[in-house]
Amino acid sequence: MIIAVDTEELKEEPGNFLHECLRRIIPLSPQHHFILLSRAYVLSNYKAVNNCFTILLKKKRRLPLIQEINRILNKEKAEIIITSDLLLAAFVKTKICLLTSSLQQFPSDKVEGLFIKYLAKKVYKKASIIYTAWEQDKKDIINRYKVLKDKVQIVHLGLNDVTKDLHFEQQQIIQSKYTEGNAYFLIAHSSLTTSEFLIFLKAFSVFKKRLKSKMQLLVYCKNYNNDKVPLEKVVKDYRFKSDVLIINANQVSPIEIFSAAYAFIFNTIKNNDINPALKSIATSSNVICLNTLIAKEIFADAALYFDEFNVDQIADKMITIYKDENLKKALSVKQQERQEHFSWNLSAADILQGIEALG
After folding, report:
1. What share of the chain is helix, strand, coil (3-state, %, to 5)?
2. What's the rounded Cα separation, in Å, for the pair 359 and 344?
3. At 295, which helix (H) or strand (E)?
4. β-strand partners of 92
5. pLDDT tens by residue, the chain, 359 residues
């Protein structure tokens, strides 16, 4: 088969869905030829691959660009195109393998509002096969756009930097570096509102008052939350502010911070918060999480769940996981088992199998 790939969402870095899948699919598929359609530069990781070549697109404006891509697809006799671009998918004349935005950590739709809703309805019906990350997304697509069930397939995001449980001495070294040798709960979010942060602080207060523990709360995110309020300002008058440490995610590597955490605490998990959630599985960390459908798909029975905005429940889960060492170990084992569900190799194989079935 001749397979074209729209590389707009491809970044040659670990964790990028399209890159992780393509770098596995292409070398293992010498029977297929791949055309990478690039809007900026030749992709360095794919230069020396015999069954793959890059075409640099010349047009910048959307409609001329789509016309250029259609000419290339026709000239090269491409049988299918892999893309996540709804506007492009609406106008190409080949079969379409559509990757939904749930597979991108930071999706960037080019059109918004009513037009994108119209495009989605058209493209989901037109696409030959659709890949999405979550069962809930699959159900929404099938019900909302009336597409055939077999057309929508689930492929999981994969794990990078899978680590084994740290020895006590290793944890102590990391904790000494960040929290003066004390254990810590970890909040790792890309989008945290002031109200959400205050709920976590209230729950942490309940934990501290009940147990008189030296446990600390480490917040790993941007300096500003979703309300553009500095997190330091939120904790300024907090009773246990000396036990709250805010770390700028842009300045510190997450690997050691994540692997030494006593437990992760998550609220709503959205596309741009999937990476920390997956890292908690990669490091076999304990998780306390808001009870949502996506959270259940990610963690299954390997986490403790709380209801939305329920301070007492969050505090109870923190206390439970702190006092019950057997439960902590059991949840860690279950997290290790969850690692098998998030494999780049499996996702790449599933996508190739789906495409070949269309040939």
Report:
1. 45, 15, 35
2. 23
3. helix 293-299
4. none
5. 999 999 998 988 888 999 999 999 999 899 999 999 998 777 888 887 889 999 999 988 889 999 999 999 999 999 999 999 999 999 999 999 999 977 765 444 444 456 677 788 889 999 999 999 999 899 999 999 999 999 999 999 999 877 766 667 777 888 888 898 999 999 987 667 888 889 999 999 999 999 989 999 999 876 555 556 677 888 888 999 999 998 877 777 777 888 889 999 987 666 556 778 888 899 888 999 999 888 999 999 999 999 988 999 999 999 999 999 999 999 999 999 999 999 999 999 999 999 999 97
